[in-house]
Design brief:
Blueprint: H1 2-19, H2 28-36, H3 38-70, H4 81-95, H5 100-117, H6 120-136, H7 140-147, H8 157-178, H9 184-201, H10 207-219, H11 223-234, H12 241-257, H13 261-277, H14 285-295, H15 299-316, H16 319-388, H17 393-440, H18 444-452, H19 456-474, H20 478-483, H21 502-511, H22 517-524, H23 528-541, H24 546-554
Helix pairs in contact: 2-13, 3-4, 4-5, 5-6, 6-7, 6-8, 7-8, 8-9, 9-10, 10-11, 10-12, 11-12, 12-13, 13-14, 14-15, 15-16, 16-17, 17-18, 22-23
Length: about 550
């Protein structure tokens, strides 16, 4: 009966152990530190903007004095307009991925100043900057209306490249927004055409050429080529934080599509950290990271990062990002509530199981005691029969010897399991009382602490050691027979405290009839891939063919 209870206990402990594991990526700790330090980065950003505004005030003040001296009606003289244009441009660049309203305001100032100067190139430059703001905020119609008014053909190549790249990004974003089988392919095709025009005008050595080339390859379905280009781009020295962020964030899309979420998570963490350090609020990295973590079951981290994504979207003023975040936030919050209820249900279920197991152990003890009494009665009968039946004394002596030997084995067997049952009974009774008391007072956190403090690892180690001992009693020459299958230099040498190591234990389980890698992985608490790796490595060292190795293991006999 105990042999039936042990698998139940092991399954329960294994389940609770898995539930207690942290599914998070270790790199998330770095992201959390960056988030804690984000006010420092934002303060530095605001200080830099304040210096730019101070420089703008000086230009405007100087222009006002010059206007007063010359009795001009306009405080912005012709001499100060280029300086104002440059100052507005610097402030726009400082705000463009930081705050939409401010970036839009300075883009309008930039446009008005360019019109006053009357320089067509400056006018085109200012409108492109204004259109970037519109697109970043999700104003697709306004973006296209404004871009269609630009006469780009007479502009320098640098402005043409920026214009066509913005149009390409517009159609890519529009395709992502629609995300259907009818319109999206046409938007991608148009985006690729404009991106071709942009790439012809960017310098091949520039970051923009490499980045937009990789982006175009992703949209065209050439993920292997894009993967190569983005990896080379990441190896390029001197990338700014913003360039690093958009490169790693875009590269993560390839790994998501390829079904490699762990790699994508690492890249998105790098992107999110770079965004925080550069005070970039117009970003999708931390939002995409929250989505992947939610799908992987890490609801706690997903909830934290989705809140940050909401904060950044509100701060920047990105309309489409706020819509995206609002769609997934209720799902994450609902999952958090479900997890809490699930934990409560688990604790109640565990208490019931512990009670049932305790009753089973009590029943087992009663059965063992009855068996002991029956054995004593049998001994008394045999002794009495031995005294009365002198004629068959020799035969009774032989029979008595055999019975004594059998009784000794039974007593040792009963004693071993009686002690084991007593220890299990004491542990379970103590654990049950603690659980019932804390549940009665609804001390859920204490229940969690009590369960988490249960040293399942030690119990598992003792279980494996007991398995090793019993197995070696059944197969005392297993290690020698196992080593006979390998050349001398590859034979296993156990440490002093070891009965079996992992290599031996895998094939010991196979010899006991457990051939499925999934079951072996669960018993030894490894992944299936790790078990496959162990088996392949061991077989490759053997002197027998790989396909015959397990058969040779099965030929090892008991005592």
């Amino acid at each position: 009966m105990l042999t039936r209870l042990l698998p139940i206990l092991l399954s329960l402990f294994f389940f609770l152990g898995v539930r207690g594991q942290d599914s998070g990526n270790p790199l998330l700790a770095e992201l959390d530190h960056a988030i804690e330090a984000s006010p420092k980065y934002d303060a530095a950003k605001l200080q830099s903007i304040a210096q730019l505004k101070a420089a703008l005030d000086k230009i405007q003040s100087a222009a006002a004095h010059q206007s007063a001296a010359s009795q001009s009606a306009d405080p912005r003289s012709a001499a100060s307009l280029p300086e104002l244009f440059n100052s507005y441009s610097q402030l726009y660049e400082a705000y463009k991925v930081f705050n939409y309203d401010s970036a839009f305001t300075y883009a309008r100032y930039l446009q008005a100043t360019a019109l006053q100067i009357g320089d067509p190139d400056r006018i085109t430059y200012a409108r492109i900057k204004l259109d970037f703001c519109l697109l970043s905020s999700g104003l697709y119609k306004e973006t296209l209306d404004s871009l269609s008014k630009i006469h780009i053909h007479e502009a320098p190549d640098s402005l043409q490249a920026e214009y066509y790249a913005l149009l390409g990004r517009y159609y890519y974003d529009l395709g992502d927004f629609d995300n259907d089988a009818y319109n999206t392919p046409d938007y991608i095709r148009k985006g690729n055409q404009y991106m071709d025009s942009a790439l012809q005008r960017y310098s091949p050595a520039s970051f923009q050429h490499s980045y937009f080339k990789g982006l175009q390859e992703i949209k065209s379905g050439r993920r292997d080529e894009a993967l190569t280009d983005f990896r080379q781009l990441l190896d390029r020295p001197g990338l700014s934080l913003h360039e690093l962020a958009i490169t790693t964030s875009t590269l993560s899309d390839i790994y998501i599509t390829n079904g490699q979420p762990d790699t994508a998570i690492s890249l998105l963490i790098r992107a999110a950290i770079a965004d925080i350090q550069s005070s970039t609020k117009e970003t999708a990295a931390i939002f995409n990271l929250a989505q992947i973590l939610y799908k992987k079951g890490d609801v706690r981290s997903a909830s934290t990062y989705i809140e940050i994504a909401i904060r950044d979207a509100i701060f920047y003023g990105a309309r489409q990002r706020k819509v995206q975040v609002s769609a997934i936030l209720p799902l994450i919050e609902g999952e958090k509530v479900s997890r809490v209820e699930e934990q409560k249900s688990i604790f109640v279920t565990y208490s019931i199981i512990a009670t049932v197991l305790l009753l089973a152990v009590i029943a087992l003890v009663i059965i063992v005691l009855r068996q002991v009494n029956r054995l004593k009665i049998a001994q008394q009968i045999i002794t009495s029969a031995h005294i009365k039946e002198q004629a068959i004394n020799q035969r009774l002596v032989e029979t008595n010897n055999k019975l004594s030997e059998a009784n000794k084995i039974k007593e040792e067997y009963i004693g071993y399991f009686f002690n084991a049952d007593s220890e299990s009974f004491a542990k379970i009774e103590k654990f049950k009382k603690s659980i019932e008391q804390k549940i009665a007072y609804r001390k859920w956190e204490d229940v969690i602490t009590l369960v988490n403090n249960t040293n399942l690892k030690k119990e598992k180690e003792e279980l494996l050691q007991n398995f090793d001992k019993v197995f070696l009693k059944l197969f005392p020459d297993f290690i020698q027979r196992f080593n006979d299958l390998f050349p001398e230099e590859d034979q296993i040498q156990l440490k002093d405290h070891e009965f079996l190591n992992t290599d031996l234990r895998i094939f010991a389980l196979i010899r006991m009839g457990i051939h499925e890698n999934e079951k072996i992985a669960r018993i030894l608490e490894y992944s299936v891939n790790t078990i496959n790796t162990y088996k392949t490595r061991i077989k490759n060292k053997s002197i027998v063919p790989n396909e015959e190795f397990e058969q040779r293991i099965m030929e090892i006999r008991t005592v």
